[in-house]
Amino acid sequence: MNITETTQNTSFEKPAAQELIYIKSNESSSSDQNLVEDCFVGMVHQSLDSWVSAVTSGRPDAPDLAVAHYAPNGVLWATYSDTIRDNTAAIREYFVRFTALPKLSCQIAHRNVRVNGDVAVVSGGYTFSYEKDGARVDVPARFSFVFSLSEGKWLILDHHSSVIPAIH
């Protein structure tokens, strides 16, 4: 199963609780297969949206909420870090600092979702905003997420994010 979907302009500032449902059919018709594929794309969108909500929730437990979206063997190459974080403790350490940014928000400008079996790739652009010295700081960045379906949930297996370079 290979599918692609693109969406644009999604903004998140509030946490949203979500539970994902996994549909599996051993013997399915082509319309059943399309339903499963559409469901998987929707689940991947929900997983990314839930991650954004967790990161920007402003809650004291935001680092733990963010880390819960990563697979146990997940990897993070983050926007504001020169370190590849390849374990849960290191990923959490990054989010302790990042989620503490004042008035942190994120707007996804665009995303491309591709699902192939139990792996999904999402790439696109987002802008993180926060307050510094009383002024709003906007940081446009590009991202790639690789999600893996595990026990009915799409978890982040690999996540790369980098600031969009200035073009001179």
Question: Features of this protein?
Answer:
168 residues; alpha+beta; disordered N terminus; Nuclear Transport Factor 2, Chain: A; seven-stranded mixed β-sheet; globular
Fraction in beta strands:
35-45%
The strands making up the biggest β-sheet line up spatially as: 1-4-5-6-7-2-3
Number of structurally distinct domains: 1
Runs in which pLDDT lies below 50 for 5 or more consecutive residues are 2-26
Tally of individual helices: 3
Short synopsis of the structure:
The protein is α+β, with helices and mostly antiparallel strands. It is built from 3 helices and 7 strands; from the N terminus they run E-H-H-E-E-H-E-E-E-E.
Write the layout of secondary structure elements.
Blueprint: E1 2-12, H1 30-55, H2 62-67, E2 70-77, E3 84-85, H3 88-98, E4 105-116, E5 119-132, E6 135-150, E7 153-163
Parallel strand pairs: 2-7
Antiparallel strand pairs: 1-4, 2-3, 4-5, 5-6, 6-7
Task: Provide a descriptive summary of the structure in words.
Strands 1-4-5-6-7-2-3 form a 7-stranded mixed beta sheet. It is built from 3 helices and 7 strands; from the N terminus they run E-H-H-E-E-H-E-E-E-E. The N terminus is likely disordered. The chain is α+β, with helices and mostly antiparallel strands. The protein has a single domain, classed as Nuclear Transport Factor 2, Chain: A (Roll), CATH 3.10.450.50.
